[in-house]
Amino acid sequence: MTDIKKPAMCPMVGWYDPRQLARTAVDVAVSTIFGRHADYRITESLVLPSADENVWEDENPPDITSDPDGVHNYGDRDHIWIDYVADTGDGWNSTYAVAYQVGQPQLSLPGVDEQMPRGEVLVFGGDQVYPVANRKSYRERLLEPYESALPRTDAPNPHVFAVPGNHDWYDSLVSFTRLFCSRRWFGGWKTRQSRSYFALRLPHRWWLVGVDVQLDSDIDIPQVKFFKRIAHRMGEGDRIILCTAEPHWIFAKLYKQYDAEINENNLEFLDKKVFAKQKIAVYLSGDLHHYRRHATDDGLQKITAGGGGAFLHPTHGDDVSELDGGYKLRQSFPPESESKKLTWKNLGFLFLNPWFGVATAMLYMLTCWSVMTNLSRFGLRQLWPAMKVAIAASMANPTAVFWILLVWGGFLMFTDVHSKAYRFIAGTLHGFAHVLAMFFIGWFATYASVRWLHFPFKSPFQLLITGAVIFVLGWIVGSIVMGIYLAISLNLFGRHSNESFSALANPDWKHFLRLKIDPAGALTIFPIGIRRVARKWKPSGAVTGATFVSDDPQSTNPELIENPVVIA
Questions:
Q1: Full set of structural domains in the chain with CATH
Q2: Which helix (H) or strand (E) is 435 found in, with range?
Q3: Parallel/antiparallel/unpaired status of strands 537-539 and 116-117
């Protein structure tokens, strides 16, 4: 086996680390501004190699044919196995746990009579790397885990295709294109696509279509033309597996009252106009980092499977038990009861996100500093007089008014944007909780420095000690208030699912899909889950195969999330 340098083994992304937040905010802002005015997909459709052009870096031609329309043809096979992984490239433990199982030559699971061979094709369903796309992140958070799971020397070499998600678009798709659209090796897999969207012709009149929706659920004109050509080649009765980077069926259910008009270039247009004469039997998506399957009574499937390595998302909150078109919720992983229990871990927000307190500490200290009034003469039983003095001092000071309004406005902006009423009420209460905490901390710090330590008010030592106390307590109390708010918001009101669970950075409850089209033309979907990923790894010592194996006795083996889903 080729020597592979020790991987970085990155931890989970710290979404509440102020440094990470600042870097991500800048990248997102830049990509949002420029991505909407300079669509890279138009450029790639003009300059990237055609589907049948051989540009392999090792000069070995691919062992699959592609035609001028860009269709990758697997249709002459008797049967095929396909792996589907979405939302990967976060922490090493979670990403490698999935990559390890995907890269194994065979999987044997309880309840499955047959051995399940490694997929001949691996499809990434969006958001291949976190927090933002760049060459370093792709290398450390995605490539290294998959190179360690299946080194290049292991043959036969399966193929890999990828649909970009919004995180892949944060560098205008430059890193994604370099990795997946340039016919490079991806560990032991061979990349095949030349654009950020693709079509695979599968056995027995099945098709797999990968769609690039960029940042705003938008499908560009060249992509529409590409899929129209593909649809024209499909026959009556052909069936489609449609892969997108986001579960628009979930968002349509949750947010339709806020987004009444639908852009005609989005996925709705693709569903109803482009592939109207063919049957989309299965919709696959990630973006939400959990497993949820919705199905109709006649077997059409909409599956959200974003368990490839990113932090876990909850399966409870808003009601998605029924969707338009007769789709009903059939299975969730983790179960909703477990998801609710995990939410209460936000009460330990201070310890889960220790650096977030820097932001609240600075905010508390600057706000108290702007008021700067002597409350040391008031005791605990004089709460109301102390509050009246603090309010009067604040209103008389423009700087204090500015900071207090800034706090209120900041928490309004943070609050769930999909409900105006909740945003105003919960945002106001959340901001008020922090302002109240600032008042009590500032009062305590002033009282302690003046009455206990006997420093004159506004003397250098008094200001220094007061500032230090406010900073430390602001760090602690501000984090605790945030954690309580997130836990209550999700478990009682069904809001802030993303913010609540990104705070937990939970690497567990990972999953992927293994699909089989058998000689009779039936599609079987095996949803494979890993309840607890390993926290420790050791070298395997094997000449071939995975470089590392679990060294954590508490990690769990892969299992079926539910019975295999069969589409005859």
A1: 68-318+509-567 (3.60.21.10), 346-502 (no CATH)
A2: helix 420-447
A3: unpaired
